[in-house]
Specification:
The structure holds two protein chains of two kinds. Helices cover 55% and strands 9% of the residues of chain A. By secondary structure, chain A is mostly helical. Chain A has two domains: 209 residues, no CATH class; 254 residues, no CATH class. In chain A, the strands form four sheets. Chain A has a three-stranded antiparallel beta sheet. In chain A, α2 packs across α14 and α14 packs antiparallel against α15. By secondary structure, chain B is an alpha/beta fold. Chain B has one domain: Rossmann fold (3-Layer(aba) Sandwich). In chain B, α5 packs across α6. Chain B is globular and about 50 Å long. Classes of the chains: A mainly alpha, B alpha/beta. At the A-B interface, α1, α13 and α16 of A face α2, β6 and α4 of B.
């Protein structure tokens, strides 16, 4: 039989059981309407917020308190950013200070506070980073006693543009300090004036830095670079003691073009310079992102994986962050979303199961009741496969009607949910964090409809296929 | 022409085996009204069902106009039944929730005839069977005699060459039964082959021939005068 005839018979069949078919349409449409918000919430809200919340430990991790290098005990005064802080606790006091800024930029949950020993610390409020370029006359110089014995001192400018942030911060290496004849205690947390000249020129100030980090010798000597020459890279090692681009693990300094200019003026042999230094090719100061990436490479290097794992555990056990209001908002939204999702999911699943069961019983009853009719249809020429097709057509008609109702009301409901959520988020200053794309609503609606079509057709086939294969007279004899 | 060759039908297996038909050979000419008679269990309905391709024989063949019925596929057989055969059953087997028109038009629907044509044709036969006042009535509201007329109309609507009637008056009172038999006679008079199973000898007398079966074999074949 052709589709037209199948549809005609299906419609006749539907008309003959109007009441039960109306119930089926109602159950199908309502169950779909109730469950569709689950997909909307789950796709758009739960997943998104869950990812944000999962990012928080990383950010919190990155804001672990830094060990006070001077006192060698945990200190409240400094904060260290970087997820690997604990992993290199013994090796680097302030390794990834600048990473914090990138984390802050990447994750908008900046105003995390956490407490240690009942004190509240908030990164954004932490003032210690705000250093402007210091006027020459107000600057405090720091020169080691034996500073003059060394010619030029070049220090990498590590971190984001200080001009922008008003920060002048540097991370040095122990090797450099040793070269300079300084101890970490003397330097760490202090301001250091760095200038470049062939000769020591007192009063000539290039930059003043706060030394916010020292990289221990062990790290910088991982690859046991043997450096003899004063002009060799070791002197220039600071926090850029990381892998170079080739990943060879060879310690090489990184310089910006500006630095290069300074250096170049003071180095006779240009070729030597090119051998010794890896030029980043940047116009300004090293972009901290490069630094961050390099540091990341360093951290992710094989040797440090274990450290990272161990210390992640330690971190989570040693620090209990308090949640910022933003975090709380996220958490509230996530919990609310979970509750709503759970309610809708439970109600929806229960209703879908009831619908499927009712539909199955209805079809089964219908098939039993009309067994003879369909058998006679086969007797007068219908193919065996026509009977399941009639029931599938019937399912499609019923599902189609329910889908129309569902599509309209389901879409309206999802649109309402979208509006409500986005408005609530806007009121709480969280707009842009979660969005419910129209595409996800449309695809959820379509997906639900497809699912219902599939289920109802499957039920129809299961109920009728056996009957349609039985010998005609066997069924008719049973009746007689 | 219907040719039945060495037809046997066995139900069940082993000790519970029942031989419903045993090596039946017979020919039925076109346009004849043949009554299959015999006691209950003689095999007459089984023979009718096999001729109507509603059951498969265990052995033997049935040829109708040179076509071996059981060499066809299931779908080919279904198409054949739709176009060449018409059935009238004792229990009518109509869809009670459908109207007279919808029931009668069913074979045409299966044949893929468009709605207008099949309704027109169905109405034609409904009128012939004297049911035009009941065209849109639901079958469940009709009397037994009326239902059987609907069944006959359904059997005729596709203009088959063979009508098979299995105890068509079995559920009817005498008067209605007589009416049905007369209708079948008229059908036969219109050059259609009618094969009727009956245990009512009075009904059998109206046929051109009677074939008597006993224990699955043809024991007698008479031409009615």
């Amino acid at each position: 039989m052709k589709i037209k005839e199948l549809g005609y018979l299906a419609n006749l069949s539907i008309k003959s059981s109007k009441k039960s078919n109306k119930i089926i349409i109602l159950l199908l449409s309502v169950s779909m309407i109730i469950i569709i918000p689950v997909f909307v919430f789950w796709i758009s809200v739960n997943v998104t917020i869950n990812n944000k919340l999962n990012a928080i430990p990383y950010m919190l991790f990155s804001q672990a308190k830094m060990k006070d290098y001077r006192t060698n005990t945990a200190s409240d005064e400094k904060t260290l950013s970087g997820s690997e802080y604990i992993s290199v606790f013994d090796n680097i006091q302030s390794k990834i200070v600048y990473e914090k800024y990138y984390l802050t930029n990447e994750f908008s949950l900046a105003d995390i506070t956490f407490s240690i020993d009942n004190k509240q610390y908030n990164l954004e409020n932490d003032k210690f980073r705000y250093y402007n370029i210091i006027d020459i006359e107000k600057s405090s110089y720091f020169f080691p006693e034996n500073f003059k014995s060394y010619g030029s001192i070049f220090v990498e400018n590590c971190g984001k543009s200080f001009t922008e942030k008003g920060k002048k911060q540097v991370i040095l290496s122990e090797i450099l300090l040793e070269t300079l004849g300084m101890t970490t205690n003397e330097v760490y947390g202090k301001n250091m004036s760095i200038f470049m000249s062939n000769e020591f020129q007192e009063g000539y100030l290039c930059y003043e830095y706060e030394v916010v980090g020292i990289i221990k010798k062990e790290l910088t000597q991982i690859f046991e670079e043997d450096i003899d020459n004063f002009m060799n890279a070791q002197l220039f090692f600071c926090s850029s003691n990381v892998y170079n681009d080739e990943g060879e693990g060879v310690l090489k300094p990184i310089m910006t073009n500006n630095d290069y200019e300074f250096v170049y003026k003071n180095i006779d042999n240009k070729d030597d310079l090119n051998k010794e230094y890896m030029m980043l090719g940047l116009d300004g100061r090293a972009d901290a992102k490069d630094y961050f990436n390099l540091t990341k490479i360093f951290i992710e290097g094989e040797d440090y994986h274990d450290l990272a794992r161990i210390n992640s555990y330690l971190f989570q056990n040693s620090i209990t962050p308090q949640n910022s209001s933003m975090y709380e908002n996220y958490k509230t939204l996530y919990n609310a979303s979970n509750i709503v999702t759970f309610i809708f999911a439970t109600a929806g699943i229960v209703l879908i199961l009831i619908t499927i069961l009712y539909y199955y019983l209805n079809i089964k009853h219908n098939v039993n009741k009309r067994q003879n009719f369909f058998t006679i249809m086969r007797a007068i020429g219908a193919h065996d496969s026509d009977i399941p097709k009639i029931y599938m057509m019937q399912s499609n008609i019923l599902c189609g009607k329910a889908s129309l109702i569902f599509a309209v009301f389901g879409f309206i409901l999802c649109a309402l949910i979208k509006l409500i959520i986005e408005n609530i988020l806007a009121l709480r200053g969280l707009s842009g964090i979660v969005s419910i794309p129209w595409a996800s609503i449309i695809f959820s609606v379509i997906g639900m409809i497809a699912f219902m079509f599939a289920i109802t057709n499957l039920i129809a086939i299961l109920c009728v296929v056996k009957m349609s294969k039985q010998p005609i007279m066997k069924i008719l004899h049973k009746e007689q | 022409m219907i040719k039945i060759k060495n037809l046997s039908k066995v139900f069940g297996q082993g000790e519970s085996q029942i031989i419903a038909l045993h090596q039946i050979d017979c020919e039925i000419e076109e346009g004849k009204f043949v009554a299959l008679i015999g006691k209950s269990g003689s095999g007459k309905s089984t023979l009718l069902n096999i001729i109507g391709a509603l059951e498969k024989p265990s052995e033997g063949d049935v040829e109708i106009d040179g076509v071996n019925l059981f060499s066809m596929t299931s779908n080919e057989l279904a198409d054949y039944r739709n176009k060449k055969l018409g059935y009238v059953f004792q229990s009518f087997y109509l869809e009670p929730e459908f109207s007279v028109l919808e029931n009668v038009a069913m074979p045409l629907l299966i044949a893929g005839v468009n709605k207008k044509t099949r309704e027109d044709k169905a109405k034609e036969y409904i009128e012939k069977l004297g049911l035009n006042t009941k065209t849109n009535e639901k079958v469940k509201n009709l009397s037994g005699g009326q239902k059987q007329r609907v069944a006959i109309a359904r059997a005729l609507v596709n203009d088959p060459s063979i009508i098979l009637a299995d105890e068509p008056t079995g559920n009817l009172d005498t008067a209605n039964g007589q009416d049905v038999i007369k209708i079948l006679r008229e059908i036969a008079d219109n050059k259609k082959t009618v094969i009727m199973v009956t245990h009512n000898m009075q009904d059998a007398k109206i046929a051109d021939e009677t074939i008597e079966l006993q224990d699955g074999k043809i024991v007698n074949r008479n031409i009615n005068v």
